[in-house]
Amino acid sequence: YIHIPFFFLLLGILGEDALLPAPQNISILSTNMKHFLTWSPVIIQGETVRYRVEFQGEYEREYANESWIPICECSLITATVCNITEDISATVAYNLRVRAAVGARRSEWGTLKGFFNPITTSLTPPQMKVIADGYHLLVELEDMGPAFQFCVLYWKKGQESRMQQKVVKEVSSVIHLDTMEAGPDYCVKAQTYVNAINRSSSFSQTQCVRAQGGPSMWLVTALVSSAGFAVAALTLPFLTWKTSKMCQYFCCPVAVLPDTLKVSEPPTQPILCGSEEAEQCDLMVHVMPSEEVLRLWIQ
Length: 299
Description:
Elements: H1 4-17, E1 27-31, E2 34-38, E3 50-56, H2 58-63, E4 69-77, E5 81-83, E6 95-102, E7 105-106, E8 110-111, E9 128-133, E10 136-141, E11 148-156, E12 164-168, E13 175-179, E14 185-194, E15 199-200, E16 207-210, H3 217-251, H4 275-284, H5 290-298
Antiparallel strand pairs: 1-2, 2-5, 3-4, 3-6, 6-7, 6-8, 9-10, 10-13, 11-12, 11-14, 14-15, 14-16
């Protein structure tokens, strides 16, 4: 009886060191140059199982003693999927493996069957929208990333033998394809192309539109913009003049003097200061003979 507790304690210690089941059903989901490693979950009752993912490329196999490189974003994760897109960007064969962990307990590595090369990714046609803007044939394409180019085919319905092609290397906004004639339908389809792997997707479903016959929205926008500029050019000088007048009125107002402070008009007739008396005196002066002067002096 003394050795029974020790026996159960030993079983507990051995149980903690026991290996966990290795992850199963390891596979790759790869679409449009985005790669995900998936596996079935390891179920341990009452425990949270975490996973660690590693990869091995051509360089590691041939020049680095078959070493493995951990994927940092998928270290001790609880999800059963790992985005490996950034880590396996070269077009070479990769091997991948994953193992489970609960505390200090580990599982054996579960390895992907065979190798995975990003060149085998599945490419899908782009999502697109064909637009008839007046007589302009336009197309909107899905932005799938910098690695993708698009081959767009367009033609007048019934004239498939005269199909035209446009290569789109950068998706910025709406792409102008052609100027349509009134009446017939114009059709468009597109496919993706990845230069790094030299592969193309299948073509998208064909979409057809017809010229609307009304004025183009681009033309309407241009006319509205021109009218706006014309109105601004006409009203801006008036607004500037009006603003300057208002500023002058508020900042430098004109003072109006009361009537009592106004200077009256100067008199039209000049004021004579003694000039009339002097003139009268001048008229009374007369010349006297010398004899009379002498007589008056003697008297």
